[in-house]
Amino acid sequence: MSSDSSLSPIPPHLQAPAAESVGEAASPLTSQSNVEVHEALQAPENGVSAEAPIKGAKVGKKRKADTSPKAKVTKRARKVTVKEETVATVASAPPPAKPKAAKPKKAACKVKIEQETADNNLAHEPGEADSPVATKSKKTRKKKDEIIPPLAERTTGSKLRVGAHVSAAGGIHNAIGNLLHIGANAFALFMKSQRTWKNPELNPEHATLFIDGCKNHQVEVADCCVPHGSYLVNLAHPDEERKKQAYDSFLDDLTRCHKTGIKYYNFHPGNSAATTRDAGIKRIAEAINQAHKDPSTGTVMPLLETMATLGNTIGGQFQDIADIIKQVEDKERIGVCLDTCHVFAAGYDLRTPKAYERTMREFDETIGLNYLKALHVNDSKAPLYSFRDLHARIGTGYLGLRAFHNLVNDKRLHGLPMVLETPIDTKDENGKKIEDKSIWAREIKMLEQLVDMDIESDQFKKWEADLFEEGTGERERIGEQVKKRAEKDAKPKKKKGKMKAETDDEDETEED
Ligand SMILES: [Zn+2]
Ligand SMILES: [Zn+2]
């Protein structure tokens, strides 16, 4: 497993934009106001490079003449001042791993960042921006190329590869700085803007910086990186034109992975709207077969993600995934990414050791554990059989901390990339949405420490109780919604599964 024994300094060219807009990460955009930040995980200096990582880099053919960060910002969003003040709190947050070396100085806990930023998440999409829009620090730092200390150091010797879906705003190379920042040993990213159909050329400079960044920081990209496919892509679509559009984007992403040394590529299987499940499954398998035969994809392995919903969504049942794999010709180049939140919402329990084993056995018998290549590690704001895709922070949802204790102590999963997509959005003192990446840094350390931890220990019990408490409001709120929906569904004689799954539109953005 790759790991740095020391705090790896993040070179300026890999430094990440500090405050991406909410929506960049692959977590549902649910606001959670009670941020709890353990002081030991505070960055002494949550600074932002004053320098654009890449100067004059070109992305995409269709760029307009004036693409300077400033022009872009003013065009797309108003100038906003973000003040991110981190507060040293809090009792309920689990502490990080026993600090090994350079522990962040508590005295420097208070951080202020003032910067121009766009509050429009599109302004930050990878492949769209070639310099870190909105990250020009206005505060003078000691030096221009000052090194940003990570929020947490990467753990050495852990049995897990754990990380998060990090931002690649400004180019994929920025993901490296972002993963180092939170002490991650695994990561996901979008290979390009995930909300448009554009397939701009992969910027060769970004690709080189990405490859070099991985090498220089011992990021074993083939084993620990699992990009996430575009939400728009639906390989099951029956319409020829839409199908081609989806396939082109899919193929383009696989090509990008191949060019950058990435082995896995995770995507949502698709939605069989306007057609049958079997026809949808057939189309997905055909697209995968076709992509496998295209030399531009090298040996990249597409991973089918388990989904939370039923109805037209393919992937809500293990059988869906198994049926796709059956029709994939090259079985060496197809895998599965299990999302803990999704499978739980879809009715696969993970909460007790027994339930966990039952679910994994079912996975093995239906799909085959040999196909399991990656995990999305998320708690769920919605209960079992709710068929709702609402991620919660680890330990705060209906899964609870024990489910994750089961997961990380399953030796079969050790070494597989585990990617957090938990919500890290919170609000600053002005009520503006900001992201708090120390939540991921904290969750990574906690998951690592859950390995071999006694659930009867005081530490475990404290974490469990505190996190349960932290999530109570959201669990109750969503639980109530789910109950009402079930009551509503019980009345008319509509087809249950289908309606339940496809008409969720209450208030949350449900995707990932
Ligand atoms: Zn999700
Ligand atoms: Zn997903």
UniProtKB/TrEMBL annotation:
Indicate, by first and last residue, each region the UniProt record lists as having compositional bias (Basic residues). Answer: 100-109
What residue spans carry the Basic and acidic residues bias annotation?
A: 472-490
Instruction: State the Gene Ontology BP annotations.
Output: base-excision repair
Give the similarity note: Belongs to the AP endonuclease 2 family.
- CC terms in the record's Gene Ontology section: mitochondrion; nucleus
Which PROSITE patterns does this entry report, sorted A to Z?
Answer: AP_NUCLEASE_F2_2, AP_NUCLEASE_F2_4
User: Where does the record place the Xylose isomerase-like TIM barrel domain?
Assistant: 181-448
Where do the record's region annotations for Disordered lie?
Answer: 1-145, 471-512
- Supply the alphabetized keyword list: DNA damage, DNA repair, Endonuclease, Hydrolase, Metal-binding, Nuclease, Zinc
Q: Where is the signal peptide?
A: none
State the Pfam families in the record: AP_endonuc_2
Q: Does the UniProt entry include the keyword Transcription?
A: no
Which organism encodes this protein? Bimuria novae-zelandiae CBS 107.79
Residue ranges under compositional bias (Acidic residues)? 503-512
Phylogenetic classification of the source organism: Eukaryota, Fungi, Dikarya, Ascomycota, Pezizomycotina
A single GO molecular function, which one? Answer: zinc ion binding
Which prosthetic group or cofactor does it need?
Zn(2+)
According to UniProt, the name of this protein is: Apurinic-apyrimidinic endonuclease 1
In which domain of life is the source organism classified? Eukaryota
